[in-house]
Amino acid sequence: MASTIFRNNLRIQKSFQFNKLFTSSSAKGQSLVTRNRIPVVEKPVRKNTNSVFNKGSVTSHQTYFYSQHKSQVKNTGISESKIIKDGKLVEIFWNDGKKSNFHSIWLRYNCQCSNCTQPGSGQKKIDNTQIAHDILLESVDIQDDMVYLKWKGEIEHQGQVSLDYLNENSYSEADIIRRHSAVRMTKLAKEIPVVNYTDVINSKEAVYNWLYQINEYGLCLMKDVPTEEKAFISLANKIGPIQETNYGKTFSVKSEPNPVNIAYSTEELTLHMDLVYLESPPGLQLLHCLRFDDEVKGGKSTYLDVFHVVEQFKVSHPESFQILTQIPATFQKCHYERENPFHLVYQKPHITLNDYKEVIGVHWAPPFEGPLLVEEKNVEKYYKAYKDLAQAIHNSDNLLTYLMKPGDLMTFNNHRMLHGRGEIHLNGGIRHFKGCYVCIDEFKCKVQVLSNQVGDGQPPIHVGNQSWL
Ligand SMILES: [Zn+2]
């Protein structure tokens, strides 16, 4: 199944049109940003059918569907529907030649009638202890853009679901391939995309462009941000609420004696992710340069797209790749000599996969590794595979480096971009950054909402939050 999907993907991806979406400047020069566009929705052409339901029942039944949602697939209307397998399945033949099957049980759980789904919120109200797993359909009736359903044994219940909903949520093999292709990480930043502060505070489109760059490339630099905390907090709030951690709502990265974190020293920081010892590490990190005196030397920021490294690693070291999806590493932060003592230990593999063996999570943070606690037979296997991945990361050609200047704000996806820093020589000067985090799901939500409101409705690509899709 998986191999079919990957083979077919190549064909499907090639058939997408590559259109220019945004042009943005980059940290080193101009770069053109494009994305696989998915066809824009046209007004659906739907079949007129004779129905047992009168016209009044159509307009009086409002079903829930995301009102500002832009569908990624054109609803061409249907040419035929058929109940088969004694009511277990409905075949829908769409006007564009596509075919979808919907199981009776799937339709029952996704019934959009106001008894089953709360119209305003879209939340389900069904009693899932009362629905038989082998429930059978009695009738399917299509009128305009609505599908009316009756199930055997449910005399009172008049089910309904819109054709838009079925079209959008079709789970035919072709639609599953399309859906997975649309959210795959395909781009690699060769340069750091750049946006301007004034643009972002003045238009929703510019906010979308900023977040789009972060979603596509894993990071984006914003220039000319006023060097005061409220400016950077209000930018974070354009994405979502600030995610508070044990380091506070915001944190200062300033070299100091006896730091609670190595980041607050002048030492080199090797490539890592932050707070990997949590169940859900913070998603986006915003790092704002407030001060960087001329006498300070070193301290260049480094970034590496670890998903790209791991995709290559999957091909170059299949065995080690496999091992790192199965044997869990230990991540920890245990530190008692501080105001709020830390004792956090979390076990998980470095790489997580979905049902199609696609990489959906990478966890890499050597400074926060704890003792490996796995079966004896796995210890040497783990360290061999670990070394292979460490080398792949170390040898990657795709390291991005940038020397922050006052007013620069770097925003990067902590689930995707490893980050580090060169050693700092203060020479009596001051280097001061302010940082905060925003939850990755809030970020993903904002990208989707803005895409629907001011973009073309395309979904965000994978953000490394381990969602299977
Ligand atoms: Zn219902």
UniProtKB/TrEMBL annotation:
GO terms for molecular function: 2-oxoglutarate-dependent dioxygenase activity; metal ion binding. GO terms for biological process: carnitine biosynthetic process. GO terms for cellular component: mitochondrion. Keywords: Carnitine biosynthesis, Dioxygenase, Iron, Metal-binding, Oxidoreductase. Residues 190-437 form the TauD/TfdA-like domain. Its cofactor is Fe(2+); L-ascorbate. This is Gamma-butyrobetaine dioxygenase. It comes from Lottia gigantea.
